[in-house]
Automatic annotation (TrEMBL):
Keywords: Methyltransferase, Transferase. PANTHER family: METHYLTRANSFERASE TYPE 11 DOMAIN-CONTAINING PROTEIN, SAM-DEPENDENT METHYLTRANSFERASE SUPERFAMILY PROTEIN. Belongs to the methyltransferase superfamily. Residues 49-151 form the Methyltransferase type domain. This is Methyltransferase type 11 domain-containing protein. It holds the Pfam family Methyltransf_11. CDD domains: AdoMet_MTases.
Length: 179
């Protein structure tokens, strides 16, 4: 699909994309490649939040690997409905439509880890990217427990631009994609 990358910051783009491409599709890396890092940094006994999950099989991989509570959010109602249907018999996998800039449905300091594979990158492509990224990171910080971990799988340019904002998050592990 050819598109301006600016559209990656817009919810309508993702609804269209997931309507036309039901997937599954994993951006950057699949679970098996990242499992050694995830196992090192993400506790199995605390709930994990996957932000901007899309139709990735990453969270399924986590549950298959022993993680017991993986909560997934995405701004696209199309993809959330599809994933709820797909995983209706997997109670350890939960899917909720939510904007990562406002995760007030979750109490503060609830999650042991937040995993972000390509979602901050998408927000950085859109309008008001700086403010939207700051709102997202505030919310990530709020829902993480003390000593919780934010695992960011990103493309190099995003992380360079965001260096100062990322310093505010409690703990960051950034896996830089080589593309
Ligand atoms: C590049 S895709 C990554 C999908 C998935 N994490 C993966 O690794 O394959 C970015 C995802 O972020 C979601 N997204 C974009 N803006 C969002 C927002 N404000 N709140 C929640 N999800 C958002 C999109 O719907 C899309 O599913």
């Amino acid at each position: 699909m050819t598109t301006s990358t600016q559209a990656y910051g817009e919810p309508w783009y993702w609804d269209n994309r997931y309507s036309n491409e039901p997937g599954p599709f994993d951006w950057y890396q699949k679970y098996l490649t990242l499992a050694p890092i995830i196992n090192l940094y993400v506790p199995r006994h605390h709930p994990t939040l996957v932000v901007g999950c899309g139709n990735s099989a990453f969270s399924e991989g986590m549950v298959d690997d022993g993680y017991s509570d993986v909560v997934n959010v995405d701004i696209s109602s199309v993809v959330i409905e599809a994933m709820q249907k797909k995983y209706k018999d997997r109670p350890k996998l939960k899917y909720m439509k939510m904007d990562v800039r406002d995760m007030s449905a979750f109490e503060s300091e609830y999650f042991g880890a937040v995993i972000d594979k390509g979602t901050l990158d998408s927000i950085l492509c859109g309008n008001n990217s700086r403010q939207n990224a700051a709102k997202m990171l505030e919310e990530v910080w709020r829902v993480l427990k003390d000593k919780g971990v934010y695992v960011l799988v990103t493309a190099p340019l995003s992380i360079i631009n965001l260096h100062s904002d990322l310093r505010r998050v409690k703990s960051v592990f950034a896996a830089i994609d080589s593309l």
